[in-house]
Design a protein that fits this description.
Largest sheet: 6 strands, parallel
Number of helices: 16
Low-confidence stretches: 454-458
CATH superfamily of the largest domain: NAD(P)-binding Rossmann-like Domain
Radius of gyration: 23 Å
Strand content: 25-35%
CATH topology of the largest domain: Rossmann fold
Structural class: alpha/beta
Mean pLDDT: 87
């Protein structure tokens, strides 16, 4: 597949990295010679220096025979024009654009990106996606990750194993004996920064982070099995009133009406604007790093503090201050990947990465076969994939123990007619089952082929 990525920043670099690792033909356009040189030196991709929306630059990048254009430059207008030119002049079949300014996304102008006007197939708004990712964490106190799959019937949950976890030092094969009625599969562990795809003989150790797939109806039981029975948050404090903070507050007001929300914003005009836009949220004007404003916000009585300012260092420090003043749980927005390994050692509970969320959202529209959702787990760990098994898939009609499942892939759950099936060796996948599975980065392309609809892929 030939992919044209416009923008060589963090998001563009990571999309190009994932696609190049799977032997796609990737070309990246950026105005910065330094960024183009970095991406060309680091990845097996072609780099072009130029303006991504100019027809001659797109032609030089091979837009004439490109399958997908992904426009993720810093400018919304460049992203939109690149897709428009790619459609009008080069007939590129699939066009994906990152659009940040909320005026473009107002439902009043919903026809703007229709085929008749500006034909963009997928619009990605990082601010909205991040706000949704944060609110998902509210639904499962004690989890640092929560992703709903198969229309909410299955959930992927990430938890930390502390000293109080009853499952510490228990071989994973014994989980079925200990909890025979619990539909849970542990699909990944991270230990001292190293990713592990577990076998039945592996054990969880204190300090491990475990990812498991579970029937949504059994989620409370699964969390209790890991020793997490935290109460649902009822007092929320948001640091930062930018687009993400505003979306987050609006979503909490709509979906969690019992939560009392306060927000601290550093700019007076912005604080006034968002206070007028929100119905129940209390907006305070001040610096999130000042003890006086934190005391005024009553941070010590807060269940969860969410730091979503535009500065990573401010998010980290304000989260640590909130913890010091007695806040039970902190969530920090972190853009720089180099900071992520430090977070858990500092005591911050949850890290949210806009880059990973945006990349995951884009990848699910790039994957081939009957793939409905893709979520990137950790840097270089792998992907959680939800796919539909078609009649021609090599998985259909075979017991899982006999199926040709690639090394590095693990089936976490099967959803059939609305019912969740916990996979065992003698489980047989049927046509049109929704299959949730984890695949390491090296195994993703093979998994893609398993869910393709043509026999010659096998």
């Amino acid at each position: 597949m030939k992919v044209l990525v416009c923008g060589a920043g963090q998001v563009g670099f990571n999309i190009a990295r994932y696609l190049a690792m799977e032997n796609n033909d990737v070309t990246v356009i950026d105005q910065s010679p330094e960024l183009v040189r970095r991406i060309s030196d680091s990845l097996d991709v072609k780099g072009i220096v130029g303006h991504a929306s100019h027809p001659d630059v797109l032609e030089r990048a091979g837009a004439g025979d490109t399958d997908i254009i992904i426009a993720v430059t810093q400018a919304d207008e460049v992203n939109m024009m690149a897709c428009q030119v790619a459609h009008s002049l080069f007939e590129v079949p699939t066009k994906i654009a990152r659009v940040r300014h909320q005026s473009y996304l107002n439902p009043v102008w919903s026809t703007l990106f229709s085929r008749e006007h500006m034909p963009i197939d997928v619009i990605i708004s990082p601010e909205i996606e991040v706000a949704r990712a944060v609110t998902r964490r509210f639904e499962v106190p004690g989890a640092f990750e929560m992703i709903p799959l198969a229309q909410g019937r299955v959930k992927l949950v990430g938890v930390r194993c502390d000293e109080g976890c009853p499952l510490i030092n228990t071989p994973l094969r014994q989980l079925t004996q200990l909890f025979p009625d619990l539909n849970i599969v542990i699909i990944g562990l991270t230990r001292q920064g190293r990713a592990i795809v577990p076998t039945a003989d592996d054990q969880m150790l204190v300090g491990d982070e475990a990812y498991f797939v579970v029937d949504s109806d059994q989620l409370p039981r699964a969390m209790a099995a890991f020793g997490h029975e935290e109460a649902e948050a009822r007092r929320l404090l948001i640091f930062g009133g930018g687009n993400i903070g505003l979306f987050l507050a609006k979503q909490v007001e709509a979906d969690f009406p019992w939560v009392h929300t306060k927000m601290i914003e550093a700019t007076a005009d912005r604080a006034e604007t968002i206070a007028a836009d929100l119905k129940k949220t209390v907006v305070l004007y001040g610096d999130v790093l000042e003890p006086e404003i934190l005391e005024e916000a009553n941070v010590g009585a807060t269940d969860t503090a969410v730091a979503v300012t535009n500065d990573d260092e401010t998010n980290i420090l304000s989260s640590l201050l909130a913890k010091r003043y007695g806040c039970k749980r902190t969530i920090a927005l972190i853009n720089k990947p180099s900071y992520e390994p430090l977070i858990t050692t500092l005591g911050i509970d949850v890290v949210v990465s806009p880059r990973n969320i945006t990349v995951s959202t884009i990848l699910q529209h790039v994957r081939r076969g009957r793939i409905h959702a893709v979520h990137t787990l950790r840097e270089g760990f792998g992907e959680l994939i939800e796919a539909e098994a078609m009649e021609t898939s090599g998985l259909v009609g075979q017991k899982l123990r006999d199926a040709n499942i690639p090394t590095g892939a693990m089936v976490g759950a099967i959803v059939r007619d609305g019912q969740v099936i916990s996979p065992r060796g003698d489980t047989v996948i049927q046509a049109h089952d929704r299959v949730v599975l984890f695949a390491t980065t090296e195994a993703v392309r093979k998994v893609e082929k398993l869910f393709s609809v043509r026999l010659e892929f096998f």
